[in-house]
C-alpha cells in the first residue's frame, strides 16, 4: 500500500498524463498477473468436462494464458479510466450507468449462444478474482495517492471507486475474449458424439498438443474407445466392440 500511495502522490506531479495512464495500465496488468486467485481459475479447469462445455474447457486449459491476459487487460483499462476520473474530478455514477448495462447486454447475448452460455459465470466471477490481496491494496492506495495529489475532495474514499471499475471491466474483456475464441471450439455434445472419430480434428483444437489430447482421452474412455478415437484401433476394433453390443465410447459399467 505505501508503494501504491507514493506512486499516486508523486507521478501526477512528475510525468504527463499520458505516461501516468500508461503506468496505471501496466500496474493493473501486473497486479492481476500476480493475484493468487487468478491461478485458482486455471486449476479449476481440470474439473470441466470437454464435451459438456468445450469453450469453457479450452479457456481454462489450453488458452488459460489468454484468459489471464483478458482479465489483466480489463483491470488495466479500469485503472486508466480510474485515473481519468480522478484527474478530471468525474463522478463514479456515469461510469456505472454505462458499463453495467453493457455487461448485462453482452451477457444476454452470450446466453443465447450454445458455446458462450457456459462462460458467463466465469466472466462474472473474474470480478471477484480481481479483488484479491494483491490487487485491492495496490489499486486502492494508488487511487488515494492520486486523489490527494490533484486535490480531490473525497481523498480517503477515492480508492473504492477504482476497485469498482477493476471489478467490472474484466467481465467485459473475458466475454469479448470468449466471443473471439468461440469459433475455434466445438459445440457441446454427448460424450459419444463428442468422441466420435470423425470429430478428432475438431476436438484437437481444445488442447495444446496431441500428447495432452491423448492423455485426456485415455482418462475419459476405455482403452478400445480411446484407440478408436485416436486412430490407433482402426475400424475393426470399433466394429468388433460394437458387434458385441457395447458402446465403444463408454468404459465398462459406465452408463
Please provide a written account of the structure.
- The chain is mainly alpha-helical.
- It contains 14 helices and no strands.
- It has helices at 2-14, 17-33, 36-44, 54-60, 64-87, 93-111, 120-129, 135-149, 158-181, 191-194, 200-204, 210-220, 223-230, 234-243.
- The longest helix is centred in the first third of the chain and has 24 residues, at 64-87.
- The radius of gyration is 23 Å and the shape is elongated.
- Mean pLDDT is 83; it is low at 233-248 and 251-255.
Q: In percent, how much strand structure appears in the residues? A: under 5%
Which of globular, elongated, flat, extended, rod-shaped describes the shape? elongated
The radius of gyration is 23 Å
The low-confidence parts are 233-248, 251-255
Q: How many strands, what sense, and barrel or not for the largest sheet?
A: none
Average pLDDT rating: 83
Q: Give the N-terminus to C-terminus distance in angstroms.
A: 55 Å
Number of helices: 14
The sequence of SSEs as H and E is HHHHHHHHHHHHHH
- Supply the helix-strand structural class: mainly alpha
What is the helix content? 55-70%
**Structure summary, number of beta strands:** 0
Amino acid at each position: 500500500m505505501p508503494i501504491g500511495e507514493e506512486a499516486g502522490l508523486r507521478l501526477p506531479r512528475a510525468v504527463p498524463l499520458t505516461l501516468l495512464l500508461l503506468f496505471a495500465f501496466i500496474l493493473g496488468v501486473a497486479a492481476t498477473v500476480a493475484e493468487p486467485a487468478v491461478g485458482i481459475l486455471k486449476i479449476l479447469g481440470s474439473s470441466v468436462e470437454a464435451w459438456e462445455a468445450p469453450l469453457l474447457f479450452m479457456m481454462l486449459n489450453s488458452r488459460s494464458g489468454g484468459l489471464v491476459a483478458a482479465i489483466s487487460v480489463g483491470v488495466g483499462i479500469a485503472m486508466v479510466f480510474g485515473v481519468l476520473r480522478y484527474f478530471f474530478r468525474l463522478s463514479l455514477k456515469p461510469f456505472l450507468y454505462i458499463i453495467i448495462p453493457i455487461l448485462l447486454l453482452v451477457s444476454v447475448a452470450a446466453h443465447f449462444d450454445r458455446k458462450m452460455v457456459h462462460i458467463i459465470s466465469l466472466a462474472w466471477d473474474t470480478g471477484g478474482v480481481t479483488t484479491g490481496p494483491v490487487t485491492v491494496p495496490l489499486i486502492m492506495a494508488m487511487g488515494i495517492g492520486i486523489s490527494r495529489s490533484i486535490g480531490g475532495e473525497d481523498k480517503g474514499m477515492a480508492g473504492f471507486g477504482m476497485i469498482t471499475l477493476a471489478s467490472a471491466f474484466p467481465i467485459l474483456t473475458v466475454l469479448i475474449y470468449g466471443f473471439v475464441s468461440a469459433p475455434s471450439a466445438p459445440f457441446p455434445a454427448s460424450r459419444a458424439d463428442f468422441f466420435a472419430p470423425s470429430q478428432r480434428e475438431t476436438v484437437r483444437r481444445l488442447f495444446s498438443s496431441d500428447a495432452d489430447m491423448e492423455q485426456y482421452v485415455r482418462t475419459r474412455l476405455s482403452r478400445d474407445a480411446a484407440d478408436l478415437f485416436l486412430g490407433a484401433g482402426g475400424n475393426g476394433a470399433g466394429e468388433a466392440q460394437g458387434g458385441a453390443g457395447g458402446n465403444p465410447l463408454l468404459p465398462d459399467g459406465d452408463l
